[in-house]
């Protein structure tokens, strides 16, 4: 398997995402910066686009067909909105999705931003540029941090 494909697949994972694939690509696989960034962001975007495109139709289908899922999704939506509505109103839904997607720390990142876009009812065509923007920013943050950190360690 090529280093580019490994980087791409690692970036797709829900916990590691690009915050793990970029340092790995740069320091272990010795990929050029542009290549590490490109394959990491692309790999991270694939599941995010799937999340914002398929969660709504799947949840609607399951809610219509199975009563348990109707109650489950209603509870999840209600619980999430009541717990986090004030933050989303303060920042605005769009900025909140970008910030969540761009935050490169464990358990907050691309997957969280995409799921929040779904939970707060942001339509696919509005959520797509928000998630892409957040992912591009996260890639820049992680690339910069990786280059700076390893440069500092080598001095």
Let me know the number of strands. 0
Q: How many helices in DSSP terms?
A: 7
* Fraction of residues in β-strands: under 5%
| SSE string, helices as H and strands as E | HHHHHHH
Q: Can you give the helix content as a percent range?
A: over 70%
Structural class: mainly alpha
On the 0-100 scale, what is the average pLDDT? Answer: 90
The description of the largest β-sheet is:
none
Can you tell me the overall shape? Answer: elongated
Q: List the domain count as a whole number.
A: 1
Determine the N-to-C terminus distance. 33 Å
Unreliable stretches covering 5 or more consecutive residues: none
Supply Rg.
17 Å
Key features?
single chain; 155 residues; mainly alpha; 7 helices; elongated
Task: Tell me about this structure.
- The structure is a single chain.
- The chain is mostly helical and 155 residues long.
- It is 84% helix and 0% strand.
- The protein has one domain (3-154).
- It has helices at residues 3-12, 17-27, 33-65, 67-91, 93-102, 110-119, 124-154.
- Helix 1 (3-12) runs antiparallel to helix 2 (17-27), helix 1 packs parallel to helix 3 and helix 3 (33-65) runs antiparallel to helix 7.
- The protein is elongated, with a radius of gyration of 17 Å.
- It starts with a helix and ends with a helix.
């Amino acid at each position: 398997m090529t280093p580019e494909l490994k980087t791409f697949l690692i970036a797709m994972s829900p916990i590691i995402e690009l915050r793990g694939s970029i340092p790995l690509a740069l320091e272990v696989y010795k990929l050029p910066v542009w290549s590490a960034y490109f394959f990491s962001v692309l790999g991270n975007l694939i599941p995010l686009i799937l999340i914002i495109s398929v969660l709504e139709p799947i949840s609607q289908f399951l809610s219509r067909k199975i009563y348990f899922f109707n109650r489950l999704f209603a509870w999840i939506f209600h619980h999430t909105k009541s717990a986090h509505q004030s933050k989303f109103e303060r920042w605005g839904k769009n900025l909140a999705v970008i910030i969540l997607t761009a935050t490169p720390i464990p358990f907050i990142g691309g997957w969280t931003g995409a799921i929040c876009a779904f939970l707060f009812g942001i339509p696919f065509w509005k959520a797509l540029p928000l998630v892409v923007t957040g992912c591009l920013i996260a890639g820049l943050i992680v690339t910069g941090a990786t280059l700076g950190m390893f440069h500092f360690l080598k001095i």
